[in-house]
Each structure stands twice: as structure tokens, then as C-alpha cells.
Amino acid sequence: MINFPEYQAWAITKKAGNLTGREARLTWALGLVDEVIEVWETFFVGAEDHLEELEELGDVTWYVAVLAEDYQIYNLSATYCQEGGFKGLAMMLSAAKGAGELVKKHVSHGHPMPQEALYQKLSFVISLVWNLAMQRGSSLWEVMEMNRDKLDGHEGGFSAEASQTTD
Q1: pLDDT tens-digit map of 91-140
Q2: Of the N and C termini of the chain, which has fewer Cβ atoms inside 10 Å?
Q3: Which residues of 58-77 are buried (b: 16+ CB within 10 A; e: fewer)?
């Protein structure tokens, strides 16, 4: 069973090869918010099955892992959270948006990054991933393993060309 530090170490090997610094941080923050919206869509607009929902949760987990790594946060803490359903997804979107706002202020406005605030927001997103996975009969560990298996098919990370064929 994979744990988050192991998953994070693996996830950074799947970054697109040429993104660094400001560009990478903005990409990871925007990607996180986008993937949380995709979770929202699969949970409420309708996925064909729970597997699609779990795959989207895996994508959220990947963006949390690479964004945290980019800010040298390696010890995210997931704790079980009681919130689920609509409220849990709204809270996940709020935490992801908050993380994105911190990154924007740091990168675009030159504010110092409040590491503890980013840590709290990313840890909360992971806690909500865990809860939503459990509601679908899975676990955070299974979500990370599924995501790893899926992305291992993308050798060398993602490319501009590959992004043309995905949503």
C-alpha cells in the first residue's frame, strides 16, 4: 500500500519536463482547481461509474502532490473528515481555490508564501479526497495507486501535444 510521501516522490517524476518556477506553480494551482471542478462534475453531473469519480480524485491528488513539492512541503497530513456529498465537494473547491489564491499572491504579487497556510489547505484537500473515496467504497491509498497506474502509461510526463487530446 502506497503512502503519501511515496506517492509524492513518484508524482514529481510525471511533471511535464520543461515547467519550472513561476510557470510551474501557476500551472499546478490552476490544474488543482480544474481537477476539483472535474470531481464536482463527475459526482453531480454524473459519471458512468464510481471508477471515473475515483480517477478524478486521483488527478486532484497528483496536483496536490506536485504543488506541495514545488513549495518543499513533504509532510502533508490527511485526517478523516466527516464532510461528504455536496458540502464536502464545496469545501474541497474552497480549499483548492484558497491554495490557488496563495500561489497567485506569491507568484504574481511578490508576497511571501505562507507555508503553513498552504500546508493546511492542501492537507484539507487530501482529507476530503480520502472521505469522498471512502463514500465510493475505496480509500485514499487505492486512489493514489489507481492514479499511479494510470499515469505510468504517460512516459516522461505530459506534453503540449498530448494535452490536445485530453479534456
Answers
A1: 899 999 999 999 999 999 999 999 999 999 999 999 899 888 988 899 99
A2: C
A3: bbbbbbbbbbbbbbebeebe
CA distances from 53 to 63, 83, 157 (A): 16, 17, 22
| Domain spans in the chain, listed from the N-terminal domain onward | 19-151
Measured distance CA(31)–CA(68) in Å, rounded: 13
CA–CA distance from 141 to each of 1, 54, 104, 133 (Å)?
6, 11, 30, 9
* Distance spanning both ends of the chain, measured CA to CA: 29
In Å, what is the CA distance from 145 to each residue of 2, 10, 148? 7, 11, 5
